Amino acid sequence: MNLRTATEIGKCLSNQTRMQIMEWLKAPEKHFPPHETLKHFNDGVCVTYIQEKTGLSQSTISTYLSNMEKCGLLISTRHGKWSYFKRNEKVIRQFINFLN
Q: What's the rounded Cα separation, in Å, for the pair 10 and 99?
């Protein structure tokens, strides 16, 4: 990981709601119901559930998640009209190693 990438990740994490999302996605089964169609968390959590839990607007959460994906913290998967997000553990480990 280089300094530029680490700085972008730091910017993404400089918001309490984004930090909460990262924490919730660490153990999604404790914080979210499985989507009624998929019945699992292999591809992450449906954006709708994340938005509902934060209480913020759909556009705000979409912007947050998009920025977190761009800096590598999240991985998105689409199933039909639904988008799912999960943590990118590889990049998170690289970020932690860079900070150490």
A: 10
